[in-house]
Design goal:
alpha/beta; Rossmann fold; N-terminal domain of TfIIb; 2 domains; five-stranded mixed beta sheet; 12 strands; 36% strand
């Protein structure tokens, strides 16, 4: 069994991210709805939805969901995990070029997917499309890894992840000048007492809070909040993840 790219990651993505509390994250989204909207939206887009864990969580809470992702392998996993009780529209589209049939009341984008946009131009394209497909005053909620995390947690460090028959060796190389961090992952899956190896290379770009706020403003958004956790706490110098909440002004 040989593989590479997202084919390597899709099957084990949820195992390697099993520490993510999607229920608490969805609670945070709903608190944002209640704080900033007159009423909760009926239709929500989960952009860069991956294997659809957040998409399914929000669908269970009664939202009509659209999931967009650029990886067919990730969407295949998402589709296979659908329980059949909730109708979710999955679209295989690049987040820089996605198209919808109409507007939505809110857009979520989780797990530092914005960091995978490797240039300010690509980020601006994505933000502009999100603005285009949001209802007036609709919310755009996303998170990014902070400069502190790129410099101190990622850096040139190596990590080992292991859980439920999956072993992942993870080596980082961060270029401070370009702001690009390369991730080299070797994933070993156990099958019938043997381990099979798959390799993957990913890249993320480090964005400052100020750069993202400027790009959002240029694309027609009003930045409502930038927090460091689901309790709306204020970011510090050692915050590892920013959570943005922005309103589409139209």
């Amino acid at each position: 069994m040989g593989c590479s790219g997202y084919d390597a990651l899709a099957r084990v993505y949820e195992i390697l991210n099993n520490d993510i509390d999607y229920s608490a994250w969805a609670d945070f989204f709903e608190r944002c709805f209640d704080k900033y909207l007159k009423e909760r939206p009926s239709l929500v887009l989960d952009l860069a939805c991956g294997t659809g864990t957040m998409t399914r969580e929000l669908a269970k809470r009664g939202y009509d969901m659209i999931g967009v992702d650029g990886s067919p392998e990730m969407l295949s996993e998402a589709f296979s995990k659908n329980d059949g009780e909730h109708s979710i529209l999955y679209l295989n589209q690049d987040m820089r070029e996605f198209e919808l049939y109409g507007t939505v009341g809110a857009v979520s984008c989780c797990l530092d997917s914005i960091n995978y946009l490797l240039s300010e131009s690509d980020a601006k394209k994505t933000f502009s499309l999100v603005h285009n497909y949001l209802d007036p005053d609709g919310l755009f909620m996303f998170d990014v890894n902070t400069p502190y995390k790129f410099e101190n947690i990622y850096g040139d460090n190596a990590y080992i992840l292991e859980d439920k028959g999956v072993y992942c060796g993870w080596q980082n190389f961060y270029d401070e000048k370009s702001g690009i961090c390369d991730f080299y992952l070797s994933i070993f899956e156990e099958e019938d007492g043997q381990y099979y190896r798959c390799d993957e290379h990913q890249e993320e770009k480090c964005y400052t809070r100020e750069t993202l706020e400027e790009l959002l403003t240029k694309c027609g958004f009003e930045v409502l909040d930038v927090v460091s956790d689901f309790d709306f706490s204020t970011p510090t110098e050692k915050t590892e993840r920013y959570y943005f909440v922005a309103r589409a002004k139209k």
